[in-house]
């Protein structure tokens, strides 16, 4: 049997049309979504003050109110977000946000919306040429957090062999890599690092394994150069980043150079708003990403403020797509930022520096509010004496003195999902 | 929106045809499977000595060699069972047997075979009237063990709302029952008991919950009257049993009276062989179940010796199906049986007696070989002094003195998957 790459003439052609054509396509899709959604969706009817809407231009769209997570958040015991179009029994899939920030929000998907998830994922899988000969190991727990559920189904749709590993220990997964010979690994960046380090401690190099692509999502690591370099080194594999969110959908895929993300503009409208004025000293090119989904009629995402801070660039990427590029991926989150002695610092920037030291096996960023300002310290686990070197690197690269505290190995928590590496008090 | 029950005229009608008509249907399906499979399947070509086969009667079929698990077991590092029809890249789903007995065996499913799994599951879901208004909580870890993966997809196909809970602790699942209001719970019998007991210890009665059906599989408990009674009591819910196996498929569903299983004879041919002569003192009605699948061309199950000991009855069940009924479900496994002072005892029989004492929270059956015979003892965890009462019940009901050892609560292992309650040395 020969290797099959899925036929994707539309997915290819839509990435090379002019911006005017793309926007015309987005407008048509948006009008279809509004026609299908607004007559049934009370939340947006109230927000917009109308129950029918057809737009003549995207400029018009930019005048409508934005949505925020807190507006969607329900007070009800079921936690189902307020912006659903139908009653719960119309839906098939129950998922929750990870709850990294606050109470998890429940989002339901209809069968049709789930098809939209898996079809949209195909752009991401295209970007690293995943094909029907690939064997996909999902290092994921398959709980209510949406995580890689949609990737799982997208890989099945693409005719790969999918190997689930929920409930397995890291050692059992290392053994599964040996016996099942996966070509692709899906996981969070921090779990992928952990898996390879655990293997290395047992004398097993995953460079020698069958894995050719490490697919990461759920944390910013996939676009942080030092994290990517470490993953590439440990696995001897291509690293592919993906961005998505339970409440939004799978909206982005890694650029060919590994230094950023493309927004899948055939399925999402990206707008870039000036940063909130409370964020001082920001790079003038930084914007907040605002997203509108063009599918998911059951829980439509209309002008949603992601809180993700990005730097958009509209030049043709070497990967040959006209989809807007976000330089450096997600630079940080507006609600994650520290203000240390008047300087804005994103945890991702700190992580990027820590990751320059492969000897650091685990870390934790501790932040404490003192009035408007944050005091930040870093705990590290390392078998080498790296405290002073890291403090120097932080001072050189961020212009800040941040104390580093070495801890015995094994003292910091470790999880397969999104790491909880930031502790605020 | 009104409740929809899936249209199932075929599934209903095939359960009321005469045995002759049913066998004619089975023969046609079997010939289709053989035509599709045998020309490609080296394992069966070697076993049968032919690469083309069309049968004129099922009697003819009963002359062909049986299959056993050990014949299928591979020596290769990948553990993929020998009886697959194609090379691995034709398959989409990777699963392993639970490894309760010996090394796990890897079984792959094509997309078409997986559709057969989920369609066959519909008979099981019919039996407890699961419909599109149901919310299904899957208390399952979604690892490589096939477990409830197929049930998960079958419930989606049936348009239920499916709530995955891989990776969640028992407490998190109890909270999910409170917030997501599932109407149906899927789990192993022992995990379902554990979940309700954990809730009770925290003052939460799952009788007050939204759960109306507890769906059990993976262990014999669902057809053991005392286990069923305990589950019905703890949940105030209907209990539905299901039988299936990674290497076979979803072959049975609980009878209406809860005292046995029906074989889904439209998708499986059941044969009943005399027990191995090494099993002495067996009830003369007992047989070993031998199964042929009528689908799953990618890993066909041809005259497979399940090792399950059953007692078949061909009378029309109150649930209105002509499918053969197995009185008491799976009575035991040929390879599980103890011989205690010359008497055959199945662990399920011991479990059934232990479960008559709801005060026993956990137990373990220890068996030690002494020549041809087994010495058996039972460890129990209980807050009440039940040692003597249980010893008496065992003597009355089995005619055997089996020592019972009380242990402090929490000393025995607990797992969400198949319990490892039998320890042999």
Explained architecture:
- The structure is a homodimer.
- Chain A is an alpha/beta fold.
- The first copy, chain A, has two domains: about 325 residues, Rossmann fold; about 90 residues, GMP Synthetase, Chain A, domain 3, CATH 3.30.300.
- Chain A contains twelve helices and 21 strands.
- A nine-stranded mixed sheet of chain A has the order 4-3-5-6-7-8-9-14-13.
- In chain A, strand 3, helix 7 and strand 4 form a beta-alpha-beta unit.
- The longest helix of chain A has 19 residues.
What is this structure, in a nutshell?
Chain A is an alpha/beta fold and 425 residues long. Chain A folds into 2 domains: 1-333, 3-Layer(aba) Sandwich (Rossmann fold); 338-424, GMP Synthetase, Chain A, domain 3, CATH 3.30.300.
